[in-house]
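Example S7 (structure tokens).
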């Protein structure tokens, strides 16, 4: 991935670039439901160096989508794309003309897959245009706009390890996370987030156990904490997409995988490895044994 804000050499007509990192819920507890139907969550999220790329294009008009999952965004037309919605919302809030800018999205993350791809794209667009337009607005204002675009957009705006609660609007950054490897695996089935929430049996689960003030410097400390947590959406998602169970049992059978779980509302699952090289090795093996699955390796945070 290019560094944040680095147009860099070889970007052609692209002069401003933002990475839209995948959001991974290492733990996700459903603790309640609001009167408007949205669910209250308590979640530990991380943002590995695996993601989409949003950039400003000087050569094209409107939004151009490329990349392995560009086809999956076809359906609703350009106005439904979260990149376009984010650009319009920020432009309206700050008196800019959204048509003055053309954007390019390289869609690398699978769509509707529990790793916040669309939310990450929207957040990257907000970061990119705030810088491009040199907007004099507060972080709090941008966070409020982000929340209007989706519950996961504020956390994606920060893209740092955090404990999030409410529907995603309360964000407490976590100081330390171990420099371990992470592998993301998606079996190629999309899962609808509202359907997963509707299929829940319980909405009153206990919150996450406490997180040490210093965070988790050691891999084993993180593993110990994770063993006391769950993803409460996993049983409901697995009921809708049984392939998730297949991914999890495959990951659990790998020697390098110290821990495996589903992220968000699925179907993407993750495995943690002590070192990044092990995640890369595993991704290579899975690409060979399951050519229809998506597998990507990175660093935890
Ligand atoms: O916020 P976002 O648009 O990503 O959420 C998609 C849908 O998922 C919501 O319309 C809602 O049905 C469900 N959802 C929920 N509780 C949350 C987040 C999402 O019920 N905390």
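Recovered sequence:
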């Amino acid at each position: 991935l290019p560094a944040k804000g680095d147009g860099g050499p070889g970007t052609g007509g692209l002069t401003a670039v933002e990475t839209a990192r995948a959001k991974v819920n290492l733990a996700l507890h459903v603790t309640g439901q609001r009167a408007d139907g949205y669910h209250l969550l308590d979640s530990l999220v991380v943002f590995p160096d695996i993601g989409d790329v949003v950039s400003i294009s000087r050569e094209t008009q409107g939004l151009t989508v490329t990349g392995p999952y560009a086809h999956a965004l076809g359906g609703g037309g350009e106005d439904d794309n979260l990149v376009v919605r984010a650009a319009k919302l920020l432009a309206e809030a700050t008196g800019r003309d959204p048509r003055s800018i053309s954007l390019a999205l390289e869609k690398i993350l699978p769509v509707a897959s529990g790793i916040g791809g669309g939310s990450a794209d929207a957040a990257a667009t907000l970061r990119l245009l705030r810088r491009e337009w040199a907007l004099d607005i507060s972080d709090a204002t941008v966070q409020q706009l982000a929340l209007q675009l989706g519950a996961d957009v504020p956390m994606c705006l920060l893209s740092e390890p955090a404990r999030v609660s409410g529907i995603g609007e309360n964000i407490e950054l976590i100081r330390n996370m171990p420099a371990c490897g992470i592998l993301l695996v998606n079996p190629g089935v999309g899962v609808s987030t509202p359907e997963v929430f509707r299929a829940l049996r319980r909405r009153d689960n206990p919150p996450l156990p406490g997180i040490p003030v210093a965070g988790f410097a050691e891999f084993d400390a993180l593993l110990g904490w994770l063993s006391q947590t769950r993803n409460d959406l996993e049983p409901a998602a697995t009921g809708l997409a049984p392939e998730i169970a297949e991914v999890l049992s495959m990951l659990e059978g790998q020697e390098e995988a110290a821990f495996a779980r589903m992220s968000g509302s699925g179907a993407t699952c993750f495995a943690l490895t002590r070192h990044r090289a092990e995640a890369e090795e595993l991704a290579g093996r899975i690409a060979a044994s399951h050519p229809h699955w998506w597998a990507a390796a990175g660093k935890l945070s």
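Notes on this example. Residues 38-39, 41, 150-152, 167, 193-194, 197 surround cytidine-5'-monophosphate (CB under 6 Å).
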